[in-house]
Write a structure and sequence with these properties.
This protein is mainly alpha-helical. The chain has helices at residues 3-29, 55-69, 74-93, 103-119, 127-153, 157-160. The longest helix has 27 residues, at 3-29.
Length: 166
């Protein structure tokens, strides 16, 4: 990888991480970033591995920082970031099937986060209930907002995500 390509990769990852943090902070302001019912606007960015592999570390770092900055419990910082990592790698793996790209983050979060809610935060409720509520929030964020974002970026992908030699 040439230095300009490495720089572009790091810049893209950094911008994605920063946008993830900002969007999570906005969601936290509306009390939507955590809890049994959550819609993290930042999760719409999980479609970005469709365009660039730099989105994978960007999403992971962004989630880690967002979880720390919003005051999440340590298990949420660890396992929430793990769920995002699994989702990001899965989205990258499915990048050839546009409409499946949002599926891995929805599944990873719907499976992992309910246990965090129940055991780290002691929120009363059942794991299946939390799977349904977290899963619904992820469907809204990833499939609705994420696919809107993906389609909006399609005409600009060569300008935004292409690795050009300087």
């Amino acid at each position: 990888m040439h230095n300009s390509r490495k720089t572009l990769y790091l810049a893209q990852a950094g911008v994605i991480a920063a946008v993830y943090v900002v969007l999570t902070m906005i969601a936290a302001g509306f009390d939507l970033a955590s809890g049994a019912i959550q819609v993290r606007f930042s999760e719409a960015l999980t479609v970005l591995p469709f365009f660039t592999p730099a989105a994978v570390p960007g999403l992971i770092v962004g989630c880690l920082l967002a979880n720390i900055l919003t005051g999440c419990a340590l298990p949420d910082i660890v396992f929430g970031t793990l769920a995002t990592a699994i989702g990001a790698f899965g989205s990258y793996a499915l990048r050839k099937q546009r409409f499946l790209v949002p599926l891995p983050p929805v599944a990873a979060n719907a499976i992992i986060i309910p246990f965090v809610l129940r055991y780290a935060y002691q929120i009363p409720g059942s794991i299946p209930f939390f799977m349904a509520t977290v899963g619904a929030g992820e469907v809204i964020a990833c499939y609705v907002f994420g696919l809107i974002l993906l389609h909006a970026l399609m005409p600009l992908k060569s300008q935004i995500f292409a690795a050009k030699e300087c």
